[in-house]
Amino acid sequence: MSVPSSLIRRYTTAERLNHWVVAVAFILAALGGLALFHPYFFWLANLFGSGTWNRILHPFIGVIMFLSFLGLMARFWAYNRITDADRQWVRQIGDVIRNREERLPEVGRYNAGQKYLFWAMVVTIPLLLISGVIFWQPWFAPYFPVVLIRMAVVVHAIGAFVLIAGIIVHIYAAIWTKGSIGAMTRGTVTRAWAKKHHPAWLRQIKGGNE
Ligand code: HEM
Predict the structure, then answer these.
(1) 19 CA from centroid of ligand 1 (Å)
(2) Which residue among 59, 97, 147, 190 has its CA within the 20 to 30 Å range from the CA of 205?
(3) Is 3 inside any structural domain?
(4) Global pTM?
């Protein structure tokens, strides 16, 4: 579909749909997982009907998150390769925080923060699936030794902590960088947004399939 000349297409409908399926599955998995993690959060189990229902549903929601994330991973893998400019961006994190973007190396489709977060997702989401399967009662846990199950529980908790912290940063950055949410809702960004936050990407697509 064509877009007005002041706007640039950043995501297709399929990419956005894929993203929001992952996002909804993540939120449900995180809320249900917190209820299972500590009694302080147990009240969250009511969102899923009861403690028992939460216990039954949580692993299946996790599998949906993993499978839908495979789609995001395949779609965005190539855009997230780390370059020398990204390493320089990280060294100048002070300028990033102070909003002095003009001092930074030119950013392409994604900045280094987005890229490292992408790779954190690529590591933690499969780790959550593998560790979760190892202690998924009653289907798979009986096939594994108890020592492995105990290790898997710890890996699952650490993986979940890292992913939840990462997604909090992801959501904060999406809101903080005004104009980004529209990229994932309408699929478009303004030319000014692209020029300010992703100038190398803008140059690359100029005259291309905008
Ligand atoms: C729940 C609230 C969420 C919001 C509001 C949100 C918002 C956004 C926005 C606005 C973008 C576009 C950024 C840009 O184009 O520069 C984006 C990209 C992306 N989001 Fe989310 N997101 C959410 C959850 C998630 C979750 C749970 C995951 C995965 C576990 C995820 C994975 C991604 C990925 C992989 C990208 C593409 C960026 C890249 O490849 O580096 N998002 N998100």
Answers:
(1) 7
(2) 97
(3) no
(4) 0.94
